[in-house]
């Protein structure tokens, strides 16, 4: 399912217009992005938690030459599923 499919499904089930659903979805995604960029986490009870995690730096290899390269540490987004979501998938 892509974003367009999601918007269509929500609009059909809720009775809202596709334009309204798209505005809400874009607003939600923007707020989650802003929160993660600011170092916060977004917790939706039963669904899951969006957060950032630190990936430490390490030494890797250039696949073309085999030379060692240093990979810097990074902050990456992560999602941890909640219990209700886990149960729904089983």
Automatic annotation (TrEMBL):
The keyword DNA-binding appears for this protein: yes
Domain of life: Bacteria
Keywords: DNA condensation, DNA-binding
GO MF annotation list: DNA binding
SMART domains documented for this protein: BHL
CDD domains per the UniProt record, alphabetical: HU
Alphabetical list of Pfam families matching this protein: Bac_DNA_binding
PROSITE patterns recorded: HISTONE_LIKE
Family in the record: Belongs to the bacterial histone-like protein family.
Matches recorded under PANTHER family: DNA-BINDING PROTEIN HU, DNA-BINDING PROTEIN HU-BETA
Protein name from the UniProt record: DNA-binding protein HU-beta
Lineage: Bacteria, Bacillati, Bacillota, Bacilli, Bacillales
């Amino acid at each position: 399912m892509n974003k367009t499919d999601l918007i269509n499904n929500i609009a059909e089930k809720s009775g809202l217009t596709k334009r309204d659903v798209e505005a809400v979805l874009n607003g939600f995604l923007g707020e989650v992005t802003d929160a993660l960029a600011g170092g916060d986490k977004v917790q939706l009870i039963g669904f899951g938690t969006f957060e950032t995690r630190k990936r430490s730096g390490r030494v890797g290899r250039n696949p073309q030459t085999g030379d060692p390269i240093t990979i810097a540490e990074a902050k990456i987004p992560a999602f941890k599923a909640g219990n209700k979501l886990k149960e729904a998938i089983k």
